[in-house]
Fold:
Amino acid sequence: MTPISKTFGGVRVFECASEGPALQNDRDALELITAAWENRANFLVIPVERLGEDFFRLRTRIAGEILQKFVTYKLRVAIVGDVSHYVTESDSFRDFVYESNRGNQIWFVRNQGELEQRLGSQNTSTIV
Structure:
């Protein structure tokens, strides 16, 4: 599957392909930021399959390093897929997912439908 751009709830979205190398560091994040900007997107969708196991182990700091780049460059992001296994394994990761989903910058969603619903529900609110 190739990357695609589309609009949900008035938000331009760049969806990263599920196939490809795992995101491992901030340089990988910068490549995705560049691709999103080239597609005039202000929201990035990353399939959970593109994240290595170390991303979900917060002690490795890979998640923080990657996600901080998106925050710094004001690109909102959704990790799409099942992370329940990681949430069950780690209280810290569970809390991280919970707090992320309370905000507007980084979301963890189960599927495309949940993402579309969240984006649609923000259509009447200010999107940063």
User: Anything to note?
Assistant: The two ends are 29 Å apart (CA to CA). Confidence is low (pLDDT under 50) at residues 124-128. The helical segments are 26-38, 62-72, 84-89, 91-102, 112-121. Residues 55 and 63 are 5 Å apart (CA to CA).
